[in-house]
Structures are given as C-alpha cells and as structure tokens.
UniProtKB/TrEMBL annotation:
Protein known as: Selenocysteine-specific elongation factor
PROSITE patterns listed in its UniProt record: G_TR_1, G_TR_2
Keywords: Cytoplasm, Elongation factor, GTP-binding, Nucleotide-binding, Protein biosynthesis
Gene it is expressed from: selB
Organism: Aquibacillus koreensis
Superkingdom of source: Bacteria
Origin organism lineage: Bacteria, Bacillati, Bacillota, Bacilli, Bacillales
PANTHER family per the UniProt record, alphabetical: ELONGATION FACTOR TU-RELATED, SELENOCYSTEINE-SPECIFIC ELONGATION FACTOR
Pfam families listed in its UniProt record: Beta-barrel_SelB (PF25461), GTP_EFTU (PF00009), GTP_EFTU_D2 (PF03144), WHD_2nd_SelB (PF09106), WHD_3rd_SelB (PF09107)
Amino acid sequence: MKEKYFTVGMAGHIDHGKTTLTKALTNIDTDRLMEEKARGISIELGYAPIKTEKNIHVSIVDVPGHERFIRQMIAGVAGIDLVMMVIAADEGVMPQTKEHLEILSFLGIKQAIIVITKIDQVDDEMLDIVTLDITETLESSPFHEAQMFFVDSVSGKGLSELKQAIFEKLEQMDFRDRHGSFRMPIDQVFTVQGQGTIVRGTVYEGSVHKASSLVVLPLEKKVRARNIQVHHQDVEVAHAGQRTAINLGGANREDIERGDVLVSSDHFLVTDTIDVSIRFVDDLQFPVKQRAPVKMHVGTSEVMGKLVFFDRNVVQENVGEVLCQVRLEKEIVVRRGDRFILRRPTPVETIGGGWVIDPKGDTYRFGEKTVEMLQKKKEGSPKDLVTDALKDHFLLSVDELVQATSLDIDEVKQILKEDAIIPLPKGKYTLKLLVDRLGETILDQIVSYHEAYPMRLGMNKAEMIQSLDGSYPKIMMEYTIETFIEEERLKKVNQFIAKADFQPHLPKKWEKRMEEVIEDLHNDGLTVQKWEEYVNNSTISSQQGDELEVFLLQTNQAYRLTEDLIIHKTALEDAIKRLKENTEDSFSLNDAKEVWNISRKYLIPILELLDELGITKRHDSERYWG
C-alpha cells in the first residue's frame, strides 16, 4: 500500500493541555525551549510523530495558544491536514479558542476533532455545561459535525479511543500529492556545530531527495540538500505532508529566515502584489479602511502590507466575500489557491482571511469593472481552469480534468486540442510549458553529471529517472527525454543519456597523468598487467583509475580480457593483423600461440574476445575468420 503522510495540528487556548496531550499521544515533550519550560507555555512550534504500524505516518504539531504567539500558531496550522481543537473541561470556550477557530476556517481546514481535556478535574454537571457551550460555539463554524472526545492526558483516560479516531479519520482523507515541484515554507532556521545551516518545515507539495539542488525564495539563493531528517531519522527522500529538517549546503544562517520558502524549480512566483478573495470576521473591533495597514500570514511568512479595495472604502462588518488586493512591503512566495490570514497590527486582532486568486496582481483602477475582472479571474476561463489543473497535477486524463475543473467533457476535449497541451501515452495530458521546464531540468542535471564525470558516456537513463521520481511522473519524463533526443538536444548511447554535443574526455587536471597510464597500457601490447598495477604505479587515485578504466572501455579505446585485465585497442588491432598475415582461412590455438608468442594466460582470453567481437568464429578446435 502507498505510504501516506499527514500533519495534525493541536490548537486551542493557552493552558488547555495541548502540550500535555501531545506528550501523552507521542511520548515526546514538545516544549523544548528553557523559556517554555520556565513559563509553562509553548512559544515555538513543537512537533512529534505518532508511532503506527499502518501505512499512515503522522506528525503532531503543538502550536502556541497565547495571544502574543498567534503568529507562530498561524505558521503551524498553515500546513496541517487535520486539527485537534483542544478545550479544557475546567474553562470551556475561551477568547483564543474562538480566534483559533476563525483562523482554521479562513485557512480552509475542514477536518477537525474536538478534544475536551482535564475531564478528571470537573464533575459531570460541569462537563455537560462545557459540552453545551462548545456545541453552540461550533454551530456556525465548519466544524459543527466534528467528533468530540473526552480525555485526561495524565491518567490516560480516553487516549486510545482518540488515537484510533485520528487514524480512522486520516484513512478516509486524501493525502498531499507527491508529484509536482517541491515546496516547503520554512518556519525554523538554526545551526548545528559541524553540520551548518538547518531549516525545518512541513513539505507542502512534491518530494525532496538527498543531494537535490534547491532554491531559497524570495532571495533566490541556490543551495543543496546535504542531509534530510524526518523526526530525527535520516532519510533519502521526504514527501508532501511530512515534517522535515534539511541540512543545507551553500547557505549561512544569516541568509535565511522564517517565512522563506525552499523550492526545487522555477514554477513558483515571487510577488508583492496579490489579488485575493477575503472574508472578514464577524466581530470586527474597528472598521477596516481603504489602504489600512495589515499583517499578512501565508505559509510561514508574516509580512506587512496595505489592503486595497476597488468597490468600497471601508468594511465595518462581515459582508461576505470581498475581492481586493494586498500590496506587501516585501516579496513572498505564493500560488493561486494558497490560504492566508490578515491581522491588524494595532490594535492587534485577526480581521479576516481568504485565498489567493492571482499571485501576480497588477495596478488596477477603482471601480466595479476591476471587481468584475477579479471575479472572472477568480472563476477562471475554461482554458485557465484546465491549465491550472495541469500545472497543479502535471499529468491528467480527460476524466480527471473533468473532475478537477467541473467542465463539460466536450469542452475539456476541445481545449486539449490546443498547441499548448501535449497528449501523452495512457490517455494522459500535460502542458508544453511543463515539458520544456522538465527538459531544462534534465539538461541541467546532465550538464552537472558531465562536469562531475567527464570520462563517462553520460548518465544512466534509469538513474536519472529515479533521481526525479516524486517530482515528475515517469510517463512525462520518458516523453520529455525522447522529445529532446528527437530535437537533437540530447542523445542516447546504449543506456546512457548525454548532451547532443558531448564527448567523453579526460579531465584537464589529470589529463597528462592519465595519458601516461594509457601509454603504459599501449606499450605492454598483449602481455598487459593487472589494471590496478597500472594505477598503483601512477599518481592518480584508485577512484580516478576506476573512472579511467570505464572511459577506455566505453569509448572502445580498450577491451576487457578478464575481470582484472584490459588490452589497448591498437595492441589488439596489431595482433589481429599479424595473425591474419600468418594464417589461412582458419587457424588453431597453437597457430595463434606461435604467431603471438604469448602464454595461455593471455592467449585464451584474447581469442575469446575475437569470437565475442565477431572477428572469428570457433568450430571445434579451429577458428575461422569472420
């Protein structure tokens, strides 16, 4: 069964038992800072895995509940799939409970479990009152049908039922798509002695492999994933939905900050002007005026900006959906459909939230025409909807596109005839733009491979496909490689892929020393030494010697006789010429021995090589020229 990865958030008012419940479920204390231990509250995000033998892997994120730490809370819940709303039985619904519910709603989180903690501290009557209060609070929220569990984290009462419910809930849910480009908003940056810069976050989409080339946005800093950990365990690859720590090569701690985004491609926009759809909270303390300063929380970023209306100058209450724009003081990374929260910097309060219509907004005139334009952009033309679906999933069939866009099947089929869309095997479709981007990624990878291994014919095709597995579907990779070969941008030599104009060559740094080794091999003629002896007698390393041997064999400058013996091409050609000149149409083993004057140690392997190359054909004790 396919592995599934989920992040479950633990939200609720301060001191309602989130951290204690997390520890009870995972046996891990997520309050790791001294200040947290001293004050008894969670300031930074805490993560812990729930152990399971199923194919479901779950990270619990314990987010801070105190009002002052609401920004960390937003950063934590932005990447979750399911929320556990924690409410203490001895206090019931509190101000931060309501604010957290609003934030979760604005972030589009629909799956929730309500957990009433500290039940051993109250009597049945109090528990009934608190339960009724919670039910009434949830009535107008997206979580009114959420299951409710009663637990005590200290005694363990109700924990097994809660844990079972979490996994049953997750088993029914879709998990994040591993395909597509890797994106991980960064919420923690730190250094470890001897290791360098470490970043943490929840992988929003795609997969990341160890040694992958990545980019930190918005500063466009190129880095490499030196090592990857999931809950302190080294892994080769991390997938969407996993809480992940990545050791970055090529970046200093000062280069990166919380809110930056780690990506694997140029599919992501860096922007400071964003067209949005917003809904405001029901109880605004003060009106929100035109160009009001706001703090936008999206992913793990927190950026100041201005709210620009196009059909009004003030919002005094929840008026339903408002299409407008946020102009930020610095650039961030967002995609269409990303959810966000808006907070007023002073007096501090959450004022609303929504989703990104267009990450690359423009300057528009005030008036209804602009709102109509934003409405069309929000709804998207049929072509836009198909294009966006293919951008998100890379590869879809007609039926899958109909499901993704809610368009009529004939309309979808008509759009698929356009030049910008490419049909692939098995009834799948993709965008020419994505194929071109994938092709450039493959070219870049091939060029890097040529630089690292200049003596090899190229990169093994299977190895290259494996390296991109999780980022692109295999069908799409196969098609792109074949297309680039047809366009003579790539070439295939046996099972190896190379740039069309590439030729294997000796690295300049070692060229002279390697030529000396080749010359020694040539001079020894048919009575060659073991290859390792040539290497040991030279100043090249064992690894370089291995590469040189492969180079000589792949470029047919030498032939293998035995596991540890190779022979220079010229020596073999001279031997064949002499043997032909001194034999008739056929010859025996003794004939060859007499001409070449070599021992059976070399004689037998050389004759078998001639058979293998088709130069001779053996029949009983005689060999005939081919």
